[in-house]
Amino acid sequence: MCTSSSSSSSSSSSASSPDLGASSASGSDADADADALPEVFSPLQHSKHTSLFVSLDERTDAAKAGGGRGVGTGREGDGPRIDKINSVRAELLRADPGLNQSLISSGTTISQLFTQDKWENHRSVRRYWTALRDIAGSTVFRRVTPPCLLAAFWAACCCALGLAAPATPLTLTGHAIALLLVFRTNQAYARFHEGRALWGQLVASSRDVARLTGAFASVSSQATRDEAAGLLRLVDAYAWVMKGHLRSGRTREDPNDPSAYRDDPAPFVRTVLAPDEADSVLLATNKPLHVTLLMTDCVRNMGGDVPVETRQTLLDAVKELARICGGCERLLSTPIPLSYTRHTGRALMIWLLCVPAALQAHMGWLTVPVVFVMSYLLIGIDEIGVQIEEPFAILPLRPLCDTIRRDVRLVAEHYGLRDRLL
């Protein structure tokens, strides 16, 4: 059996079920600004429970103060806008520590679910001025600054030494560079889109399992209702273990290194499952697979008052959950061929290092800032492709997990099973 007794479930529901949703990061000052940074996890807004993320308090507090490495870029004198960016980043990190901190955007738009208000702000024609104003807080700008400075330094050397070369080779090869960038960026976005589509299917399949389970369990025997409640709890847990499975993270000697991120599903799983079930899931080598096995046991153990066709439909839905996990694992384990990525980077840098020799005879020392801007624009395109190539480090997985939890509990309440959930 995959469930604990209903009495233990109900007795622990009030004591061990903290609201694990993320709170909004926007304040009154943000509401007054038409271009204010959007809320982090709308439409799911909950109270803040930071006890689960005690180890992150020091980093997030530093980020709010403008000193968090990889989380914010604020420095003394940067002004209130950068402080607001740091605050949003810090709130996002506190709520979803499994995000790759070094890839969090200044507006965190890629790591949240949009609402109509956010779309309206996104479409505003003031976005061009806002983008220029906030360039210092841009993740892409911060990450590509070193190679851009290298290109600018080489441009200064060319100007000082008087190196000159014809522009014809650059003109002929520029089209090839553009094709390399376009192809790689398109492929990276296709992977990002597929990752989001898979998680959309996960939300839909979870709703199907919950809906069918609740509908037939509400008119079934006590034993079947117990199994149904256990299946609903496992549907909730599956989203959290999937998120942890896809964000196993990296380890670094320096705990403040922004690339040392890791998603731990244990606090969330233990609020959903009974202790023995939670232990078995968390000790499993492949946690999503283990949860699907427990789901299959629940469906198999349902009484005869549930039609065979319904049980087969539930098994098909569980199969779909496993298929989604396989698709996500494929994206995570197989990048765009490394030779293509490396050749694109090499070709782009060689081309940019040749540009100063063709420009300095006509532009003089103005070549230095021009090369820096050109480098930022072109290297930034390649950097965006690299960032979205592995989608699960930056997709809004936390709000999607919150969505599944909300819908599962809504179904349980509708069919009278809410008191059986932990």
How does this model look, in words?
The chain contains 16 helices and no strands. Helix 8 (168-217) packs antiparallel against helix 13, helix 8 packs parallel to helix 15 and helix 9 (222-246) runs antiparallel to helix 16. The model is unreliable at 3-82 (pLDDT under 50). The chain has 422 residues and is an all-alpha fold. The chain has two domains: 17-137, no CATH class; 144-422, no CATH class. It holds the Pfam family Bestrophin_2. Residues 1-29 have a biased composition (Low complexity). Keywords: Cell membrane, Ion transport, Membrane, Transmembrane, Transmembrane helix, Transport. Its main location: membrane. Residues 65-74 have a biased composition (Gly residues).
Index terms:
about 425 residues, mainly alpha, 2 domains, 16 helices, about 0% strand, membrane, ion transport, transmembrane helix, transmembrane
- What percent of the residues sit in helical stretches (DSSP H or I)? 55-70%
| Biggest beta sheet summary | none
> Helix/strand/pairing class, anyone?
mainly alpha
Shape: elongated
Distance between the termini: 17 Å
Low-confidence stretches: 3-82
Number of domains: 2
How many strand units?
Answer: 0
What's the alpha carbon Rg, rounded to whole Å? Answer: 25 Å
Number of helices: 16
Order of secondary-structure elements:
HHHHHHHHHHHHHHHH
Instruction: Note the beta-strand portion.
Output: under 5%
Average of pLDDT: 77
